[in-house]
Amino acid sequence: xxxxxxxxxxxxxxxxxxxxxxxxxxxxxxxxxxxxxxxxxxxxxxxxxxxxxxxxxxxxxxxxxxxxxxxxxxxxxxxxxxxxxxxxxxxxxxxxxxxxxxxxxxxxxxxxxxxxxxxxxxxxxxxxxxxxxxxxxxxxxxxxxxxxxxxxxxxxxxxxxxxxxxxxxxxxxxxxxxxxxxxxxxxxxxxxxxxxxxxxxxxxxxxxxxxxxxxxxxxxxxxxxxxxxxxxxxxxxxxxxxxxxxxxxxxxxxxxxxxxxxxxxxxxxxxxxxxxxxxxxxxxxxxxxxxxxxxxxxxxxxxxxxxxxxxxxxxxxxxxxxxxxxxxxxxxxxxxxxxxxxxxxxxxxxxxxxxxxxxxxxxxxxxxxxxxxxxxxxxxxxxxxxxxxxxxxxxxxxxxxxxxxxxxxxxxxxxxxxxxxxxxxxxxxxxxxxxxxxxxxx
Length: 442
Hints:
By secondary structure, this protein is of the alpha+beta class. It has ten helices and 19 strands. It has helices spanning 24-36, 81-94, 119-124, 138-141, 148-157, 172-186, 190-202, 250-261, 268-275, 330-342; strands spanning 40-48, 51-58, 75-76, 208-209, 223-225, 229-231, 246-248, 286-290, 293-302, 305-312, 317-326, 366-369, 376-382, 385-390, 395-402, 405-408, 413-418, 423-427, 431-438. Helix 1 runs antiparallel to helix 10 (330-342), helix 2 crosses helix 6 (172-186) and helix 7 crosses helix 8 (250-261).
C-alpha cells in the first residue's frame, strides 16, 4: 500500500530444478543470517503435492518483549487478501448471485462512471477509480475507524483517473467495493463469508479477517528499521476490507492456493477466467516469472508487513512467506529461498558495517540534483544515521557500509559520496550522478 524509493520490481528469475533438492540447512542459515543482521523477520512455508516440506519462523513477533514467532503466528497479509476476495466473487457468480458484466451503479451509483464500470473491471483494476490509499493524507487517517458510508464517500468524491477498461491501474478502492458488494448480496459480513466459503473448505485454521493486533492470540506486530526495529502503525481494519484486511500464516496460504488450483473452491471454468491475464493481471492474481517457468499468486504489503504466495502448477509446488519487518530487498530474498528449494547455487550474503559518528555525516548533508533524472534528494541526519528523502517520497535511513558509502538494502539503493567534489552517485537500476545544491542542511 506504500511507495518505496524509486521502483522495486518483483521478479523471480531463477532456473527451476526439483524440490527434492531442498537444502533445509542452508535455507535456515540464510534466513537466520538475515534475521541476525536485522534484515528480515518472517515466517516461511513450502509445499509440494499438497504436503508441507518446509516451515519455519524467524525474528520476533513482538520485538519489545522479545517474543518469537512460531509457524502458527498470524501476520497481516495485505493485498494477498484480493485473491481471497476474487474467489468469493467467482463463487457468487457460480451461485447466480452476481454477474461479471453487472454494473457498479446497481450498488454504488454515486461513484464516477458507475454506469460503465463492471464487476470484472473491478476485479482486473480497469475501472479508473482512484485508490484512496494514494491520498496524501492517508497515513494520517488510516488508523481511525471508517464506516462503509465514509469509505464510499471518499471513493465517490475522487475524479476518475481514466475511462473504464481503457487501461490497467492498481487500486485498492476496487477491492474494497467488491467486499461491500459481497456483503450486500449475501447479507453477511465479509469475515463470515471468508470463514464459511474459503477457510472451512480449504482447511485453513489460522486465517481470518483481522482486527486490533493481539500478541496473546499469537499475532505479530509489524516494524520498520531505522537503526533499530520500531513498531509500525496499525491500520484500522475497518478500512482495507477484502483489499488487504486478512491475517494468515504461510502454511495456510500454501493450503489456500493449492485448494484454489485443485478445484476445491471454484470450478475449472471460473479458474480459467480468474487466471486469464489482461495487462499482466487476472482476477486478484498475477504472474511471477521464474526463468522459463511461471508461478501465479499475489504479493501483499500493509503497515510494516509484506507477504507473498506463489504456485507453480506444473510442479505442484507452493511457496509463501509473511514478514513483519523488512530491511532488505524482498525480491532477492525470494530468489535465494527459491534457489534453495530447487537446488540453484547461491551465496549467503555477508553484511559489512562501517562505524560513523554524527560529525562524520556533516560533509554529506545537503540537497542534491541530477541532470540525468528529474529527482532531488535531500540528505540529512539523525544522530549518527544518514537520512535521505527523494522528491515526493518517504524518508529512508541509510546504513553505512564503507567510507563514503551507504545503502538501503530493501530497495537496492547504494549511495557513494565524493565530499571533495560535493557530489554523490546513486546506484539503483543504473548509475546517476548528483551534485550538491545547498549545504548545511540539518
